[in-house]
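Chapter summary example.
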Amino acid sequence: MPEHVLNLTRPFAPRRLKIYCGGLVVLTLFTLVPTIGMELGFIKPTFTVDVLGNIVLALPSWLVPLVVWWDGPGEHRTPLQRGAELILVWLPFTAFSQVVYELTFLVGNLVGIWKVTNDPGWQWLWWQFSLADTRWWGENPYMFSLEFVAVPVGIALLLVWLRLLRTTTADEQRVRSLWLAIGGIAV
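The structure predicted for these 187 residues follows.
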């Protein structure tokens, strides 16, 4: 039995929390700036922009697990504490990416705006991904069904995450939420 109670709801040291928030700002900027820039015409859809955009958008997914391992000064966390922090950081990351990315595809397919083009405008983020995977353009029913499932699962993951952040969540509810998160990520 541990001598102290583990706080698995708010395990973030101030330095790591700043890095996570910085990653969120980078993701937001590198989603919005190229999207708006392509639509307004001050950024052109070039291969260089695609490569740089993908590298910057992928950085948080590479760095988050490394930052989780970093202990602050005087901090000695257990693997359980590190795992709790990874879950609390990764759930919103994956959920928001599902909701933002897939919801746009879902709505775009419903209203018929996804067409093959050389000038993507505001669709740049989705367009450059679709250059490699052309199934996303048009009316592919399999891709539509993936989008249709991914959006509510992403919303459910956000709700699970909010429950896990609450300090008043009972242990049994926390375990159920973790199982829901595993199922949602698997979907």
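To summarize the output: Helices lie at 14-40, 47-69, 79-111, 124-132, 141-165, 171-186.
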